[in-house]
């Protein structure tokens, strides 16, 4: 089985998430990185490509040129990974989709609703795949949690508590990672709510299978002079009657990357935290709490399918991310042969991206409306 | 130094919180229980008193009679503990205050605002002490947290996250403890919000010293047929600009008594959970997280003052409660001699009780108003 | 039911364990402290007694005088608690037993085998009760663990891992608590091994019901100039084939009072740590690990019998200790009426004390013999 | 920079550790797997190679043939990974070394001392690199722990506690992974002691930099009929006076892969557990315990050098293993150019392997000698 050929837009020297995508693409041996427009700076683009063993003639400085050139090659890329700041998603996404190349794109979908719509339209017109990397859905125990909810282990869901707390933006900061995230021109109108709030919202939706109908939000920008939110309080109402709370913060001193999800139903409850992702507690009402481990006793098929090594041998963030790349590969292999994605695979796409955009928009609208309950588009 | 003489209203055989108050009163050797109207059922009152070594002539069946009789005795009680359901606080509280006897009363203050006002008026008229047992304020690390916030270890407070999750009312239940809590005639209009939401709210206020100005609430009654809320979502706005979220639930399967408080400021953050109350984490921005232990390295004076045994020897719920009884004793001894309560002592009273009543009322009003931001009285 | 009358030897101002015994005796309302020889220093004895509300005529400075005087009173003490350093156990224990008064005594039994034998002989001659306060046996989950082992939940026991780590003697220290513990004339030949090693050994024996037959030990005195061991490594062989390891240390920097017991059998394993004593994990082979809580779902009768408050409301060190006082009271009440102690009660006595002395002696002998396997007396 | 070419011996379909090596080799993009003798079964060898994209002419069934053929190719492999059961290390290791090809080999070094010596001799004769994959040394916090000890953060080391507990062999089992591990002909005379005891021993040595001089061991085979040990108790004496305990077990029900290391010195103590490898606690004597995170505040250079992603984004077992492959690549690149390995890199080799063999031999000898203190070769 040949490896698929991957291109990348963004992710040059000094970037963070580009390197993550590359490791994720390597872990399961499904992809080779063969082309890139890694930076809009020509020197950096070239140097970055050389570091990565990309041939000189496939080290582009312009994504549009790259889309054309790769589409024209017999050995052109099967898919491109877009790992630029939010406002730079739509341009390359549309270009590659139009060129007939599948797109793997970091979240959130775009910086503005208009950009999001452009991507959606291009995807629809092209018939090519658009794959959104909400990477936390790749954790085995998150897959297991989803399966447990779906098969009724928790009964009817009542309460969803999700939070995503960081502290790295607690003070005025500068640097490649921070700058664009606090600049509305590049991040979009949402700051924290877009950057990590969307992850939290997506995770709650993914695990519970519930659609949020309304939210009431209170957004703050605590750091003086900050133009986007850095702390987000949201109350949620889901279809079917479940309720939730969502907290996202980039100023919560004492937190590194504390994404946590709790779901409580009539029959059971689960609790999972990303920083130690190989364990999840599960309580059946009236019974002792259980510690479920990735791949351990009591694992569900959905969880073990995406598990590489035995329990007690921790898998982490990169493995979860790698699962998205392996499932993207599976999707592309199958659709290229006119087949459906096998059961148990989960690939997030345009609709999930639009749902994230609606979440951001609703949070901002509700907060500006002094917390009025606001529908999600 | 003579022990103070304690009477009790409520707390007969089969009760829960009455037994807790009694142990709490014994632990530090400041009180002797010498009188009681332990039940309105005469037989049970007598039998309960006998169990506890209360003399027959001080085993009352009527609190009004008890107030009169004890006030008339040379060796009458110094204070009475009221440990009845919420709707039965005001009657005895007013009676004992009018009889010139200090009152120690379980929370919340009362079942209705009217009852609360009656107590407040009686306290004012009598000049006697009214002591409210928000027992979680008695934990040494909570005292330390308060001191740390007050002296600026956390900088300016930005975000307060407080939650109190239980699951014992996740299904329709019956029994002495459950029945009155889900009966609005006895618990008041608030269910979960009054029973444990007030604890969470009080704890957040106590530690941060911040006054909540507004809240937006979404209350649910998940168990079919339940007449009071059993799950409570609240967003908070504090004077000075801090924001908070409060979650209280009695249907969150997998939780026993999971009260947790997190406070994040410009310079630091703390995290404390009641079920393992002898540790608290503290992070100074940019430094490794510290695990502070009750009485351990780095303890504050406020924490060690109410600590009985060395770190590593866990104190629990009853010791925290006992601190309230010891501070009540200190208060009574000092005021009886015209002195002020020594520094470092904290006794909650009428104002804290009224604040809790305002919290309940605002939650209910906001929730009925579809989450409108509602001032706290 | 009248409260029993307690006397105390040792425990004057500045002492640690005496205060613990007094709180423990108060918690369940079974005892009144009415007499004491709290210090050999007359002034301190008097002042300490006054602090505690002991009548002047029962504030003794000499334990022998106290034994005589209390035995002669109609309202004399039912039992005496001996809370002096190790070398001061035998004198008062023998005196009170000879005077016909039950003895409650801190561990280890004595500083020397000779003293231990004197106590044993006096107990035998008197027919009075001798109760040894290995307080960690009073924790509800330890009772539950014992019951679980006894009823076969763990299958046949194979491996026992017990450790008790502290760091407060990591440097040369001085002070009332430290001084006598590192002075062989007062602590006995064992330092750490006697002070906390005996607790660890007792706990392992209590929970498993297994008798240690042989041990191989390596004792160290790490702090320069220290005359007794401060770190203890032991391998154990139990009757029936189980094996164990025991580590006790008072120089393990980073530990406050870290007593931990793990027991592994053919069918299951448990793990309990004293610093958070309200939880214990239990794994049935091939099933997810369970978190058992004190009094929570799946609690055994043995555990709930000694539990005062609901799960999630933590009980601690003092409550565990209090259970020993309540069971001592139960024992005395029953034997005084010619009855057997009710099922489920556990009172440790002379034989447990002698077993502890044999453990100390075997550790020292083995270590001096370069780790030779040494029988336990 | 070209990727290095990797071959593999063992690791065909159904194997465990071979797949781990392959992922580890891919993660950092330093290696391409291009040749293999993946199984001695010809069909399985071919099929396994095809799965992995290995060209047909480099899918060997015989390691000796592979060594010859690869040595003869201009594009021959730079190194071979040997991932066979213990008794099959020496044959291929000697063959590839003699053929002038670097060897990466799983632990323990060999099944017998004779085999170990053969490898050592072949390595010496060839001048080629022999790299032993004690993968737990690759964890960033283990690197940091080593650096902290080396620079004196813990003071003089006194006590080392290391344990490695599993339960997967608690019953008689069968299967590809279990079979050879309990067969002395394939595993060597040591069972658990060789399989995981060596990891624990190596980790303690790696972090502390201390050489174990003597040990006293008690080995058991609990499962009826088992011919090798499955539970290992060891006391250790290190050069310089530190002491240790080591517990390894494959029958400790309730443990998946519970490798834990604690080191206590005169000034500080650390505690690290492999199952959540992104945190380590560190206590300076007299100060609050700190939670150090991989790459977080207070990270050392040694730890951050081998860290790929920010703190709070967990890395796991595969990333730690990958660091060994990246450092092996660095070593090969440097020695091939006559340069020394850069500072901060750690590659374990023959001497570490021999030390592991001496550990196994000493444990067996001591245990057979009833626990006599036995020097380590």
From TrEMBL, chains A, B, C, D:
InterPro entries tied to this protein: Gfo/Idh/MocA-like_OxRdtase_N (IPR000683), Gfo/Idh/MocA_oxidoreduct (IPR051317), GFO_IDH_MocA-like_dom (IPR055170), NAD(P)-bd_dom_sf (IPR036291)
Every Gfo/Idh/MocA-like oxidoreductase N-terminal domain range: 5-133
Domain of life: Bacteria
Every GFO/IDH/MocA-like oxidoreductase domain range: 142-270
Coiled-coil annotated spans: none
Protein name: Gfo/Idh/MocA family oxidoreductase
Organism: Tropicibacter oceani
């Amino acid at each position: 089985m040949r490896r698929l050929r991957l291109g990348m837009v963004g992710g040059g020297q000094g970037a963070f998430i580009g390197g993550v995508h590359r490791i994720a693409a390597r872990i399961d041996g499904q992809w080779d990185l063969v082309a890139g427009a890694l930076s809009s700076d020509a020197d950096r683009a070239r140097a970055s490509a050389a570091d990565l063993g990309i041939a000189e003639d496939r080290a582009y400085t312009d994504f549009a040129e790259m889309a054309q050139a790769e589409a024209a090659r017999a050995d052109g890329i099967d898919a491109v990974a877009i790992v630029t700041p939010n406002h730079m998603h739509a341009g390359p996404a549309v270009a590659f989709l139009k060129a007939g190349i599948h797109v793997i794109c970091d979240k959130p979908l775009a910086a503005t609703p208009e950009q999001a719509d452009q991507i959606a339209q291009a995807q629809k017109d092209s018939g090519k795949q658009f794959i959104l990397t909400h990477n936390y859905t790749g954790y085995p125990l998150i897959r297991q949690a989803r399966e447990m909810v779906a098969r009724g282990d928790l009964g009817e869901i009542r309460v969803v508590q999700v939070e995503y707390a960081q502290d790295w933006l607690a003070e005025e900061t500068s640097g490649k990672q921070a700058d664009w995230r606090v600049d509305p021109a590049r991040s979009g109108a949402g700051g924290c709510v877009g950057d990590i709030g969307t992850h939290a919202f997506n995770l709650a939706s993914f695990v519970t299978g519930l659609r949020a109908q309304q939210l009431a939000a209170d957004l703050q920008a605590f750091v003086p002079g900050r133009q986007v939110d850095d702390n987000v309080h949201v109350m949620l109402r889901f279809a079917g009657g479940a309720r939730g709370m969502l907290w996202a913060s980039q100023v919560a001193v004492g937190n590194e990357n504390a994404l946590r999800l709790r779901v409580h139903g009539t029959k059971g409850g689960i609790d999972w935290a990303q920083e130690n992702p190989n364990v999840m507690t599960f309580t059946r009402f009236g019974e002792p709490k259980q510690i479920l481990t990735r791949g351990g006793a009591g694992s569900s098929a959905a969880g073990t399918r995406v598990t590489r090594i035995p329990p007690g041998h921790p898998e982490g963030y990169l493995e979860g991310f790698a699962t998205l790349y392996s499932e993207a590969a599976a999707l592309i292999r199958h659709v290229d042969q006119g087949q459906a994605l096998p059961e148990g695979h989960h690939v997030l796409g345009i609709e999930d991206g639009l749902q994230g955009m609606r979440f951001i928009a609703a949070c901002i609208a509700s907060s500006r409306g002094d917390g009025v309950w606001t529908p999600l588009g």
